[in-house]
Write a structure and sequence with these properties.
Layout: H1 5-15, E1 18-33, E2 36-41, E3 48-63, E4 74-81, E5 85-93, E6 100-114
Antiparallel strand pairs: 1-6, 2-5, 3-6, 4-5
Length: about 120
């Protein structure tokens, strides 16, 4: 399977740098229906040419209120990051996409750069 040019450029950029540190990004989603997006801001470590990556660390999402007895529907989690902010978009779907859900997602942001 081939990789996109953008993915290869990011891998090359990260490979030529040292790990400068990590930061846990926490996203709390209040009880609501449909897709939700939350952000978490942080200060990157000092260094030059910093690149940040994010990986899913954990999630705890559930339907709320009168819908709490339903099992999971389709769970979709997307994480993205810049050097100063991480974002998480999450959706807990069922057949109607109308049930309220809430929960927490955490990601681990890793910073690479030249110290």
């Amino acid at each position: 399977m081939s990789q996109s040019t953008q993915a290869v450029e990011v891998e090359t950029a990260v490979a030529s740098r040292s790990m400068l540190g990590t930061q846990v990004a926490r996203f709390h989603f209040p009880s609501n229906a449909g897709t939700q997006r939350q952000t978490d801001s942080f200060n990157p470590p000092s260094g030059k040419d910093i690149v940040a990556t994010i990986a899913l660390q954990s999630f705890d999402l559930q339907y709320t209120g009168k819908d709490s007895h339903f099992d999971y529907g389709r769970l979709q989690v997307a994480l993205s990051t810049s050097n100063t902010e991480a974002a998480c978009t999450a959706t807990l779907r069922d057949q109607t996409d109308g049930r309220k859900w809430e929960g927490t997602v955490t990601g681990l942001v890793t910073f690479f750069g030249i110290a």
